[in-house]
Specification:
By secondary structure, the protein is α/β, with parallel strands linked by helices. The protein has a single domain (3-250), classed as Creatininase (Rossmann fold), CATH 3.40.50. Helix content is 38%, strand content 8%. The protein contains 8 helices and 4 strands; from the N terminus they run αβαβαβαβαααα. The protein has a 4-stranded parallel β-sheet. Strand 1, helix 2 (39-54) and strand 2 (59-61) form a beta-alpha-beta unit. Helix 2 packs across helix 8 and helix 7 (164-173) crosses helix 8. The radius of gyration is 18 Å and the shape is globular.
Length: 253
C-alpha cells in the first residue's frame, strides 16, 4: 500500500500498527559525469516499490525522503545536502509523524551511504522517545551482500559510487538518465594500504572522513564501464529478494 495514494480518512481506517511502515531514504547528489543527481533516490525508490508490490497487505510504503546528508559531495555542483544535525532532526520529525499514525514497526531503508551515521543517531533518540515502537535501519547493499557479490564482475574497488552496480541498476530502471559514453573509472584504488582501500562491500578497519573531491576527479568511485542493463536487472531482482527476506522476518518481531 502506498501512503501517497490514500486520503486521510483511509489512513485513519488503516490498522497501521499491524503493518510495516517502509520509509526509503535517498539523496540528491552528484553521481559522476554519466548519472543523474537523483540516482540514490531513484534506486531506493525502485527497491521500495517492488517490496510493496510483493507484500501490499503487509507494507505501508512512504514516499522516499530525497534530501540526504551529502556534505562530502558539495564540491560538485548540483548536490543538495542537509547537514548532520538537521538531518538527524528531520528523520526524527518524520518518524514522529509516522508514530502519530499508529505505527509500531518502522523500517528505514537507506539508499545513500552518507545517511548511515546520522540515521543511527536518530534511532537512538527515537528509541528513548518511543520505547514500544520498533525502528530498524539498513542500507539495501548490506542486506543484499550475497546478490551483489554474485552479480558483480569488478574486483575490489569496483563498487563505490556511480559504479558498476549503481550504473547497471539505473540502466535497467531509467536508461534515459544514463550516458555510458561519459562513464570513466575513478577513485583511489591502486597502491593503497588496506586501511584506505575502499569498496561498497568492504569495511575498513579504521574510520576517517574524506571530501569526495579528494578521492575522485569525476565524482565516480569504481568501474562504471562494466555496467549493463541486463546486469542491473539481476542486481535489482536479487536485492529485492534479499531485502524481502528481512521484511518477512521483521514482521514476526
Amino acid at each position: 500500500m502506498l501512503l501517497e495514494n490514500l486520503s486521510w480518512p483511509e489512513v485513519r481506517k488503516l490498522k497501521v500498527a499491524n503493518k510495516i511502515v517502509l520509509f526509503p531514504l535517498g539523496s540528491f547528489e552528484q553521481h559522476g559525469h554519466h548519472m543523474p543527481l537523483t540516482t540514490d533516490t531513484d534506486i531506493v525508490t525502485g527497491i521500495a516499490r517492488r517490496l510493496e508490490q510483493k507484500r501490499p497487505e503487509k507494507i505501508l510504503c512512504l514516499p522516499t525522503l530525497w534530501p540526504g546528508h551529502s556534505t562530502h559531495h558539495l564540491a560538485f555542483p548540483g548536490t543538495l545536502s542537509v547537514s548532520q544535525m538537521p538531518y538527524i532532526n528531520l528523520v526524527c520529525e518524520m518518524c514522529r509523524s509516522i508514530v502519530k499514525m499508529g505505527a509500531k514497526k518502522v523500517f528505514l531503508l537507506n539508499g545513500h551511504g552518507g545517511n548511515d551515521i546520522p540515521v543511527r543517531a536518530a534511532l537512538r533518540e527515537l528509541k528513548t522517545e518511543f520505547p514500544k515502537v520498533q525502528f530498524v535501519f539498513a542500507s539495501y547493499w548490506s542486506l543484499a551482500a550475497g546478490t551483489i557479490k554474485k552479480v558483480r564482475e569488478s574486483e575490489m574497488g569496483g563498487l563505490g559510487h556511480a559504479c558498476e552496480m549503481e550504473a547497471s541498476v539505473m540502466l535497467y530502471l531509467h536508461p534515459e538518465k544514463v550516458n555510458m559514453k561519459k562513464a570513466r573509472r575513478d577513485g583511489r584504488r591502486k597502491n593503497q594500504d588496506h586501511y584506505r582501500q575502499g569498496d561498497m562491500m568492504m569495511s575498513r578497519p579504521v574510520y576517517f572522513v574524506n571530501e569526495f573531491d579528494e578521492i575522485s576527479e569525476t565524482g565516480t568511485v569504481g568501474f562504471p564501464d562494466l555496467a549493463t542493463a541486463e546486469k542491473g536487472k539481476r542486481f535489482l531482482n536479487g536485492i529485492v529478494d534479499e531485502v524481502l527476506e528481512f521484511v518477512d522476518d521483521f514482521a514476526k518481531w
